Amino acid sequence: MVKEKHSKIDADVEQRRYFEIEKKYQKSNRALNVVLTVAFFAFIYVFALLFWILPDRSFSPEENRALTTLPEFSFKALADGSYTAEFADYMADQFPGRNFFVGMKAEAERLTLRGENNGVIFADEGYLVKRFDSPSKETYEKNIGYICDFAAVAREDGIPVTIGIAGRTVDVAEKVLPSAYGTDSSDKTWEIIDRAFADNGTEYTDLKTPLKELFDKGEYVYYKTDHHWTTSGALAAYEILAKDAGLDAAGRDSFRKETVSDEFYGTTWSSAGAKWIGPDTLDFYRFDGDGDLVTDRGVDGGSFDGLYDKSYLEKKDKYSSFIGGNAARVDVTSKDGGREKILVVKDSFFHSMAPFFAKDYDLILIDMRYYTDVVPVIDLCRSEGVTAVIFMLNAETLGDEAGLRTLEIGLER
Length: 413
Hints:
It is built from 14 helices and 15 strands. It has helices spanning 2-53, 75-80, 82-94, 98-111, 137-156, 169-172, 184-199, 208-216, 231-244, 267-272, 298-301, 354-358, 377-384, 395-398; strands spanning 59-60, 65-66, 116-117, 120-122, 128-130, 161-166, 205-206, 256-264, 280-286, 293-296, 303-305, 329-334, 341-346, 362-366, 388-394.
């Protein structure tokens, strides 16, 4: 009887102890929930506040691209969905701490073995490769048609035209790509390019294949963190393109390599957020007298002596040290005069190639993505007395919907 009474007392004590522990746990859990809830809403509030307080950025030096600014509201844009789409891009581009969170996401993708982030593939040997899918056959055919129409008219005027097409990193760096990625998209792109030029009865200089051969041999011809070829790659391409153009161009022994930075992080590095990847090396190839040339970037861009704007070496966008970066028109001329003049329709792949051509020729460099001058390019060829035209574009620009259509202006025969 006494034993049963003690057992009942012990059970009551244990039950009270259990309820006390449970009560403390629930109280502690409620406190934790309150803290987490407050922290969550504080996080949302702070970032919402920062979003509206911080000024919008129009350009990202990390990604070397224009950022979406606040779109102008209209009921028409709201109704057709364009306003909400632009506003979503605006929110993504202007989000506070965007670069930090891109890096966090990239690290998470790497740890979960996803193999890419923001359309950039984490390839072997530290290469970051921009991904391209489903090339637009129609866009490639249109742009190649514009080039071929222009070339036909220029040749009728007695101006020889040479067309060079460079590969993207994804086309050249096949050996470092993950096996699961495959080459179907790249192969299809070049099949479209080959067929379109053939259908127009026009030959072009394939700069993808020889650069890929050099890459496969282990040569440093494309940057690991940027979408451009290296200056060494540009030199190899120059030798091929100049030969096909029939130009009396300098050999590589005319240039001396000067390493100007070993801390170059390019645009694919910024897009991928791959903070664990090391930097590239940036080289200039100099020649005697290159500082006596003048690079003129027009009214807005100003001019400078030589071929390099070295102020960019102190910035993120070090690639823009070549001829000062993107511009609608850039003229490279000798102060002494008397040299033949070449017009180059180009994208930024030509920037690191420009010094090689500039050793022997004055250059007019036209970027159709920005060129809005009232003078059509064909008329520019005639009025400036150019002795040759070179197209130097990479496969990405060739597939840009708005990139080349204004070449057609003034071609009426």
